[in-house]
């Protein structure tokens, strides 16, 4: 029988991570059309509300049902406003590993939401799902994403040369692609020891302008 992630909600001091739903469509569409999201992800462009609905209603539950991964909305605890997403992909239930990525809306950057959401997800994966390895891949020029990985305790393992395609907007409004490297990071259960305390001593999650 295929292992699958449960439908869950994860709460932190400032955030609630929960399944995406229909009400997220407008905010999700706006976030996914941001220039930095376009640059560093493979999100289809333009990202339409129809595409958002199809993703939430069909793609997300299908991937979870077959055990491939999980998508969570990241919302502010007080306002319930969508601040980003966390995605788990390439899950291997035999190896007990998964790949984690995150996106933060433009208006919410600089608040440390990516690191807070990623750390909460990692703690849940290691504690409740008994995973043994989480992998992150960040584009070589995406320093903000690299800072988030470092902040939650990830260890840099090496470089996948020429494995990432970044996108830039052209003068006529189109997209141009350029190849770059992926930096591979890993997080093991023991890497989280002391991370929460270190973050508290450093003033919490607000040190970096994380966005993706």
Automatic annotation (TrEMBL):
Domain N-acetyltransferase: 15-171
Pfam families named among the record's database cross-references: Acetyltransf_3
PROSITE patterns per record: GNAT
Record-annotated membrane-spanning stretches: none
InterPro entries, per the entry: Acyl_CoA_acyltransferase (IPR016181), GNAT_dom (IPR000182), Ribosomal_N-acetyltransferase (IPR051908)
SUPFAM superfamilies membership: Acyl-CoA N-acyltransferases (Nat)
Record's protein name: GNAT family N-acetyltransferase
Protein source organism: Streptomyces endophyticus
């Amino acid at each position: 029988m295929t292992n699958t992630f449960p439908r869950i909600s994860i709460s932190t001091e400032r955030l609630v991570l929960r399944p995406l739903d229909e009400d997220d469509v407008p905010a999700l569409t706006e976030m996914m059309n941001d220039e930095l999201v376009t640059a560093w992800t493979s999100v289809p462009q333009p990202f339409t509300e129809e595409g958002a609905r199809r993703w939430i209603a069909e793609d997300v539950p299908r991937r979870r049902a077959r055990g491939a991964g999980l998508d969570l909305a990241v919302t502010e605890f007080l306002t319930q406003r969508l601040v980003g997403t966390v995605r788990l992909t390439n899950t291997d239930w035999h190896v007990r590993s998964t790949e984690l990525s995150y996106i933060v809306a433009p208006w919410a950057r600089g608040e440390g939401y990516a690191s807070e959401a990623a750390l909460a997800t990692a703690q849940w994966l290691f504690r409740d799902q008994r995973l043994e390895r989480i992998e992150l891949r960040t584009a070589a020029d995406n320093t903000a994403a690299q800072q988030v990985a470092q902040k939650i305790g990830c260890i840099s393992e090496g470089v996948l040369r020429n494995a990432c395609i970044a996108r830039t907007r052209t003068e006529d409004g189109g997209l141009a692609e350029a190849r770059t490297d992926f930096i591979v990071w890993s997080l093991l259960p023991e890497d989280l020891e002391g991370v929460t305390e270190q973050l508290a001593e450093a003033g919490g999650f607000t040190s970096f302008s994380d966005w993706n």
